[in-house]
Design goal:
The chain has 27 helices and 17 strands.
Length: about 625
């Protein structure tokens, strides 16, 4: 796990050297153990290393035998030993024991097709000096990030945008569609970034740079082809076999490793399987929440149950709503607005884990594979609600529900009901869009003064991007279309982006067994009715892991590492929020309408609407603007 950077430009070597060092230095938090560079004709590569495998011999960049090709790599290849043996049999000579060198020789042997043989998480760049070509690639799910910019004859890439933003000549314009996407979803989906000149390489894609031309290509995608003939018990057996293999592969490490333990099914399953494989107690980490949290209930007691059953070395931390300087720090992790309200607990659990381990396994991905979110259940129920007469749904039911006040306790029952009803009058794609968006339509356009048509077009484009994924030919069942959409947008650009940036801020590598591509491909053959069954989320997964987990862990309501943001915004964080979103502060840049922002805050505090996600988005946007656009 590392940080990579590169510059391809017709510049003198001393200028290349100066710029690549500045770019690489900005990524020092991603790789505190080592640094390396390579300069050649028009090319400069930089690498910051977090040493996990081959601690003494894995210095990068790594070269092939005749030094005509070299690689900088971020990630882990979990089947590298098998690939290494195969490549050695074909005559390749290795100078290290690292997985990085395996990628380079695999590329020499199989070219672009080598990507299909890699099992892991990765973002890398190979420089071919003979062909004067850059070959970049990103893993199938976007676990590892890769940003690039091509402007004024310069091609730059890096693990984080801050390395590209180091260039004092870089123009910090703002992309309207990125702003619309951010306020719709709380994140900015690939290939967009907040800056129109910087793009994210899409997951499962490669990029070739040669003679000033860029050619991007998709090398992998998931196809949902449910097998309705196979029995439930066979699915369970085959799934568990693949999951056990995935966890076992991800225990490869020459440094201490542990696991996040939220108390939910996914992380508990990973910990249970780790405990079976390891001879020593697994180090597990969880967090709870302090301050005025009302009826909000974190999952510490379920994590303790799991830790006790597995005999783990368990560590807890209570997070309080004292965020002095923390929001600014989080914004610096992303370099663009990012407003998933799970960032604060995620920041602290990564910091906590890094005090004892260098690698942590996570249960991320289980919800996307098996339907674990409330919006999944809402979409599922919506198929039945749609059968009621449209007039009854719209005039009668919606009229009643919209007048209901929000719970002051911090729970979202009324909010979820309102979102369900608002989306119920639409077709399947638009209905799931309604469940997935975070901004109430009555605020969306008035929030941005003087940008009516531009923002209308931007919001339309952002919605079209979402709907295009839902309308894919890769799935036919509406529920599978929903899972596919999450895998293309929410998974890489929200939870995986958050996990990478916040863990690497602390020099911690996070591995995600549920996102082994062979496992996900298998899950795509499981019929959707076995994932959401009898109004139960994650039905098949629960059946599969039931023998390993305490009954309370299986049956309790999912919470995860998500804090009581709604409650805090009404109580402990109210003054901070009002100060940062005051009319005086907002008028400094004029991008947001202070009157509408005040209305959003008033509606939330009065319980008329649950606007916690929108308020958090406004806060993060304001802090980002102050730090990056001045």
């Amino acid at each position: 796990m590392c940080g990579i950077a590169g510059l391809y430009a017709n510049l003198p070597l001393d200028r290349l050297d100066q710029e690549i060092r500045r770019m690489t230095d900005s990524l020092s938090h991603r790789g505190p153990d080592d640094v390396g560079y390579h300069l050649d004709r028009r090319i400069a590569l930089g690498h910051r290393r977090l040493s996990i495998i081959d601690l003494t011999g894995g210095h990068q960049p790594i070269f092939n035998e005749d030094r005509t090709r070299c690689i900088v790599f971020n990630g882990e290849i979990f089947n590298y030993r098998e690939l290494r043996t195969e490549l050695q049999a074909k005559g390749h000579h290795f100078s290290t024991q690292s997985d990085t060198e395996t990628i380079l020789h695999a590329y020499e042997e199989w070219g672009e097709m080598a990507l299909h043989r890699l099992r892991g998480m990765f973002a890398f760049c190979i420089w071919d000096a003979r062909e004067e070509t850059l070959f970049l690639a990103r893993d199938r799910f976007g676990i590892k990030p890769l940003f690039y910019a091509f402007d004024q004859g310069k091609f730059r890439f890096a693990s984080e945008m801050k390395a590209i933003l180091c260039d004092p000549d870089f123009k910090r314009d703002v992309d309207p569609e990125a702003i619309a996407s951010y306020f719709l979803f709380s994140y900015i989906p690939a290939p967009l970034t907040i800056y129109p000149q910087i793009r994210k390489l899409l997951p499962g894609h490669s990029l070739i740079v040669k003679n000033g031309q860029l050619a991007e290509k998709q090398y992998w995608d998931v196809h949902f082809e449910p097998n309705h003939r196979k029995k439930e018990r066979v699915f369970i057996e085959e799934f568990m076999e693949l999951l056990e293999e995935s966890v076992r592969m991800r225990l490869i490490s020459e440094v201490p490793l542990g696991a996040f333990l939220s108390g939910g099914i996914d992380s508990s399953t990973v910990v249970a399987l780790m405990s079976r494989e390891l001879r020593i107690p697994v180090k597990t980490f969880t967090i709870g929440f302090g301050g005025d949290i009302g009826e909000f209930d974190d999952e510490r007691r379920y994590a303790r149950l799991m830790a006790e059953q597995c005999g783990t070395e368990h560590t807890e931390l209570e997070v309080s709503p004292n965020f002095d300087g923390l929001i600014e720090e989080i914004v610096r992790c992303f370099d663009e607005p990012f407003a998933d309200d799970g960032v604060i607990p995620a920041y602290y659990v990564c910091k906590l884990a890094r005090e004892k381990v260098k690698v942590a396994l996570s249960g991320l991905g289980g919800d996307e594979a098996f339907g674990g979110y409330e919006r999944h259940l809402g979409f599922y129920l919506g198929q039945y609600f749609q059968k009621l007469p449209r007039h009854f749904r719209g005039k009668v039911v919606q009229g009643i529900i919209e007048r209901l006040p929000e719970y002051r306790s911090g729970w979202f029952r009324t909010d979820h009901l309102k979102r369900f009803i608002r989306s119920s009058l639409s077709g399947a794609a638009e209905r799931y869009l309604g469940f997935s968006t975070k901004i109430n339509p009555r605020y969306s356009l008035d929030l941005f003064p003087g940008q009516g048509k531009v923002l209308r077009d931007a919001f339309a484009s952002a919605q079209d991007r979402f709907l295009k994924y839902f309308d894919t030919d890769n799935a036919s069942d509406p529920l599978d279309k929903m899972f596919y959409t999450d895998m293309k947008m929410y998974l890489p650009d929200d939870i995986l982006a958050s996990t990478d940036r916040l863990s690497m801020r602390h020099g911690l590598e996070v591995r995600v067994p549920f996102l082994d591509h062979r496992l996900v491909e298998y899950c795509a053959t499981i019929p959707a009715e076995l994932k959401l069954k009898w109004f139960q989320k994650k039905y098949l997964l629960k059946r599969a892991v039931e023998p390993m987990l305490p009954p309370e862990v299986i049956t309790h309501k999912k919470q995860g590492f998500v804090g009581p943001t709604d409650r805090w915004l009404r109580t402990d964080l109210r003054r901070f929020t009002r100060e940062r979103l005051s009319e005086q502060v907002l008028r400094r840049h004029g991008r947001l309408n202070p009157i509408v922002v005040t209305q959003v805050l008033d509606d939330h505090e009065a319980g008329r609407e649950n606007n916690d996600s929108l308020i958090w988005s406004l806060l993060i946007f304001q802090v980002w603007h102050e730090q990056y656009l001045h």
